[in-house]
């Protein structure tokens, strides 16, 4: 537990990549200014056409820093993508309680709570969407009463958010039933995370446990659900444990091919290694609305799987894909050279290694390496 707390403390201080902006939005619905803190990715000003997932935080006055640290740390290791992080301040003039006002008989927002819902849906989100060129993938997070409130967005026919991070939620009337009912009907990919601390508030734990049982009973293949009961954590300390767990759940398909993925999934395939790689990135685009070139290290993982299983014909398919991804580099010709080398055609292998030599190096592939490989095979070429 102590080691984990030390790691999380380091994460909280790991925010050197982002540009932090303090901003305000005039809410006509609430007749006052609302204050937000925005963290923009390091690439934001470099590429005006790039879009980013939104991570929107209720209770932004105290959730912003831990989320920002976790995102920055994960992105440094390329485990988490760049996102636009927006935290809403709810720590002024009893705003938090007013924002989350519910009708005790219907379990729906009323009065100031209904106004707050309309402020987020009709004022805040449209403004930040136009200002910070967001993608269509949006996450909302909250803690305690705000975690309960954010579930109201699930009640819309077309939810505004694709992923929900519910940290020790205070669930309103019959939410433990209604949330599961809503999650059962969505056809598009939906992510739902909730956590509770071992030492959490008893009355809240009971409802959360019931909701967990109801969600686990669902048979919806488009739902990605995770539940954490964090040992030794209180209602407040569980926040630091929940954040990385939720983010790594939601962005699991973004992460590079890991050693465990390679050993447990890829190497065990009888065929279709290149198709696996293509599907991985197609899923990333389809589910998270993130389009990105295939990582060089992921190409190398597929190379290793092909070699290990002696499925040398797949090098031709891999070459087609690498030519498409990195047309000006030596990667595609290198893969063709590997194909010919491994089927025993030294002449064509030398030809493609020399072709690769004339193109741009990429990753660990250098001009010297291409010459070395060509020279090593020249003695096998029949004259």
From TrEMBL:
<dbReference type="InterPro" id="IPR029058">
    <property type="entry name" value="AB_hydrolase_fold"/>
</dbReference>
<dbReference type="GO" id="GO:0016788">
    <property type="term" value="F:hydrolase activity, acting on ester bonds"/>
</dbReference>
<dbReference type="InterPro" id="IPR011990">
    <property type="entry name" value="TPR-like_helical_dom_sf"/>
</dbReference>
<comment type="similarity">
    <text>Belongs to the esterase D family.</text>
</comment>
<dbReference type="InterPro" id="IPR052558">
    <property type="entry name" value="Siderophore_Hydrolase_D"/>
</dbReference>
<keyword id="KW-0378">Hydrolase</keyword>
<dbReference type="InterPro" id="IPR000801">
    <property type="entry name" value="Esterase-like"/>
</dbReference>
<dbReference type="Pfam" id="PF00756">
    <property type="entry name" value="Esterase"/>
</dbReference>
<protein>
    <recommendedName>
        <fullName>Alpha/beta superfamily hydrolase</fullName>
    </recommendedName>
</protein>
């Amino acid at each position: 537990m102590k080691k984990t707390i030390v790691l999380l403390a380091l994460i909280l201080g790991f925010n050197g990549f982002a540009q932090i902006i303090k901003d305000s939005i005039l809410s006509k619905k609430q007749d006052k200014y609302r204050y937000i803190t925005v963290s923009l990715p390091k690439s934001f000003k470099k590429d005006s056409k790039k879009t980013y997932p939104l991570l929107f935080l209720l209770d932004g006055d105290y959730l912003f820093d831990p989320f920002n640290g976790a995102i920055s740390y994960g992105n440094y290791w390329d485990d988490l993508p760049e996102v636009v992080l927006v935290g809403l301040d709810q720590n002024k003039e009893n705003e938090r309680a007013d924002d989350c006002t519910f009708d005790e008989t219907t379990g729906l927002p009323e009065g100031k709570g209904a106004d707050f819902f309309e402020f987020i849906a009709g004022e805040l989100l449209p403004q930040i969407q136009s200002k910070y060129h967001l993608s269509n993938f949006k996450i909302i997070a909250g803690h305690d009463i705000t975690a309960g409130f954010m579930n109201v967005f699930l009640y819309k026919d077309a939810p505004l958010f694709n992923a929900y991070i519910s940290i020790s939620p205070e669930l309103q009337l019959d939410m433990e039933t209604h949330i599961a009912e809503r999650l059962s009907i969505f056809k598009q990919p939906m992510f739902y995370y909730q956590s509770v601390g071992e030492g959490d508030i008893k009355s809240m734990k009971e409802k959360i446990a019931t909701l967990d049982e109801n969600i686990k009973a669902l048979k919806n293949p488009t739902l990605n659900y995770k539940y954490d009961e964090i040992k030794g954590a209180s209602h407040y300390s569980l926040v630091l444990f929940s954040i990385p767990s939720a983010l790594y759940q939601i962005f699991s398909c973004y992460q590079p091919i890991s050693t465990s993925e390679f050993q447990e999934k890829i190497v065990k395939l009888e065929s279709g290694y290149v198709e696996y790689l293509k599907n991985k990135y197609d899923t990333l685009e389809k589910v998270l609305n993130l389009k990105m070139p295939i990582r060089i290290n992921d190409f190398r993982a597929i190379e290793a799987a092909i070699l290990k299983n002696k499925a040398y014909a797949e090098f031709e398919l891999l070459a087609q894909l690498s030519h498409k991804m990195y047309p000006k580099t030596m990667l595609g010709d290198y893969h063709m050279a590997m194909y010919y080398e491994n089927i025993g055609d030294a002449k064509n292998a030398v030809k493609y290694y020399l072709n690769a030599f004339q193109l741009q190096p990429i990753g660990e592939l250098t001009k010297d390496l291409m010459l070395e490989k060509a020279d090593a095979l020249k003695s096998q070429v029949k004259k």
